[in-house]
Amino acid sequence: MNTRDQQMALEQAAQRRIKDSHALDGDAGRLANFYRGWASSYELDVGRDGYCGPMIVAELAGAVQTAYLARQRTAIAILDAGCGTGLVGVELERLGFRLIDGIDLSEEMAERARQTGVYRRVQGDVDLNGPLSDYSSARYDITVCCGVFTLGHVRPEGLRELARVTRPNGFIVASTRKSYAEATSFEDEVRHLQDAGVLVPAQRLNDGRYVAEEDAHYWIFQVPENASTPTEERRL
Ligand SMILES: C[S@@+](CC[C@H](N)C(=O)[O-])C[C@H]1O[C@@H](n2cnc3c(N)ncnc32)[C@H](O)[C@@H]1O
Fold this sequence. Notes:
This protein is α/β, with parallel strands linked by helices.
């Protein structure tokens, strides 16, 4: 096999692994097992597939901070939900954020995120399809979530808990792979949560670059102001 053939074989294997990860039905045991086996080659595989979601999500978080949050980046508390090996955290740190916590279902992925040294704290064994019981409400200024609202991973209902741990007038930045947005009730869930006063869709980038074979939508949600919690920030 020449170098070009080898390269193509590696790219195909990477795409196969990514596709396999989409068939896990949100089952926590299967997902954790899959990512246990994928943790060591995850970054190489998604790099081969042109994955640029983490950079876009981090830059949107940066834009939100500049546009709407009065405090400096070093004082903005961020939750990276489904942090994986820490690709989003590394981008956030590059942009000047320092108070970054990560959570992930897979302890092996979480351990790699810890090793980046950019997170304040990383917790593994946290299922975003259930209640985030260790996390108090209104704890974060911005919650980011990249590559997690994707087929077979976290269901749209997971958005409610992300909103709960984000403070009033804070923001959630999330990617949804296009095929996920089409196959699930994500938009219905957004409408439902908006009607319930849980979040407001503030901005959305449609069809942004994500991986080589597919685009994603990038969402910015704002958690509505709680009348009893005055804040210094400007509302959208
Ligand atoms: C495609 S990776 C994205 C990781 C990282 N955010 C990035 O952009 O590179 C998906 C991550 O979501 C995690 N994950 C999948 N299902 C989850 C769940 N139900 N709860 C928490 N994390 C989950 C996986 O362990 C994996 O680390």
